[in-house]
Amino acid sequence: MTATPSPDAPPSTLMTDEEYGALRASAALWAGTSVLITDQRGRVLIQRVDYRTTCLLPGGAVDKSESPAQGAARELREELGVTMTVDRGLAVDRVSADGSNAPADMRFPGEILHVYDGGTWDDEQIASIRLPEGEVESIEFVEPALLPDLMSPGDARRALSALRARINAAGPVLLENGLPIAPTVLDRAGALRTARARHHLPFHAGPAPEQLSVVQAWGWLLASDGRVLLLLEPDTGAALLPGGTPEPQDRDNPLATLRRETHEEAEAEFGDPQFLGHLCDPDKPYARLRYAAPLTRLGPPPVDPATGRTHIRVLATPEQALEFFDWGPPAANQLAAVHRARAQLGIPRAARQPLTELPDATDPTIF
């Protein structure tokens, strides 16, 4: 009896072209495509459709003789009434036959699903959306942490993995059932799976009025390449800048608060700071101060005495750091103040690049 070659073996004289084609077809998978779109607050566009109880990213099946990118562009036209070029991939997910809740009668063989970057849409682009008469009932932009509540588990994992890949800027990632086969620090920390810190408080470049109580001092600590120190909670993936709440030993000195908190949270020290401004709540007599300063020392990762946890320390561009917070339109003014201070400190503007984890302080290029 002639042994049958594996499906990935080349045709041989032992098989006809028809036999080889049938063998390869028996191992075929479906192909799907989707598009990740966010608004200017970093919320993700999802669709409610009439054929599923869970929400979806825009997208669908790839048609015969159609590339995944062409299929993604077609789905945007059909589902959102938007014509645009789709040419930047975020993820390729191999969904196994048992990784889906597809009905048995469907005989789901598995799927290769591509996720493309649809970009960040402004109000004008969002207003241009025109839904079809059927299939898509509504769209909304939701906080990333809500995706697991609104989507199927696999779809939510895929969307969050793609969003982390977009922020990390290291190129497309390979997934299996929604999870990266080579997890980044953002994947390991579970970034964006809990609600981002939200406050849309106005940012003022001047000093805080004396009648306001200072309740927070945070710092944008700049490495020599223009990136900033960002901390991730190890159990929730929540992000924060170094700094915190004044304590009695700080003697009403916000800089003392910032230096103490930076040491406790990150075992870090900084040089001469520049005051950026303050945020205030119209309904409360409080002020939150913001500073920028050059990062000058980083020791071993400490245990934060306030929480008993060791933060994950990463370097990110200021723009990347902002994507981990929901600070609304006032964030643009704060970001501009950071870059003015950076320029005055003689530190270059960082190019967008993958985030760097800082488990220790052995890299001399940080300072």
TrEMBL record:
Coiled-coil region: none
Cofactor: Mg(2+)
UniProt keyword annotations, A-Z: Hydrolase
Pfam family, one: NUDIX
Superkingdom of source: Bacteria
InterPro entries: NUDIX_hydrolase-like_dom_sf, NUDIX_hydrolase_CS, NUDIX_hydrolase_dom
Domain named Nudix hydrolase: residues: 28-164
PANTHER family the record matches: GDP-MANNOSE MANNOSYL HYDROLASE, MUTT_NUDIX FAMILY PROTEIN
Protein name: Nudix hydrolase domain-containing protein
Source species of the chain: Streptomyces nojiriensis
